[in-house]
Amino acid sequence: MKLVEIGGGSFVSAGRVVAVLSPDSLPVRRLVQDAKNEGRVIDVSCGKKTRAVIVTDSGFVVLSAEDPAVLKERTEA
After folding, report:
1. Among 25, 47, 52, 62, which residue has the least CB neighbours within 10 Å?
2. Distance (Å, rounded) from C-alpha 21 to C-alpha 68?
3. Cα(69)–Cα(35) distance, rounded to whole angstroms?
4. Rg of the Cα trace of the chain?
5. Are 2 and 46 in contact (CB under 8 A)?
């Protein structure tokens, strides 16, 4: 099991990640809001601006302050 640092000293299993998205588009913002309403959001941005939205295969949505490109590099390393 490979763990990827997603910021704030937090990690996620690389095998469980379905998508890493930018939070700028309206569909992604809707996805985050729906997940918040259902209690499926994990916010690890530590009060910083959310730069990446990570969707897992279990339906959880993780909000990170790291850039999506940085997270992509970390998963490939």
Report:
1. 47
2. 7
3. 23
4. 11
5. no
* CB within 8 Å of 23: residues ≥ 6 apart: 29, 32, 50, 51, 52, 53, 63
Delimit the domains of the chain by residue range. 3-76
State the pLDDT at residue 51: 97
Per-residue pLDDT in tens (0 to 9) along the chain, 77 residues: 899 999 989 999 999 999 999 999 999 999 999 999 999 999 999 999 999 999 999 999 999 999 999 999 988 87
How far is it, in rounded angstroms, from Cα 8 to Cα 43?
10
Instruction: Look up residue 37 and give its two tokens.
Output: 């309403």
Q: Phi and psi of 37, rounded to 5°? A: -65, -30
Rounded Cα–Cα distance for residues 24 and 8 (Å): 21
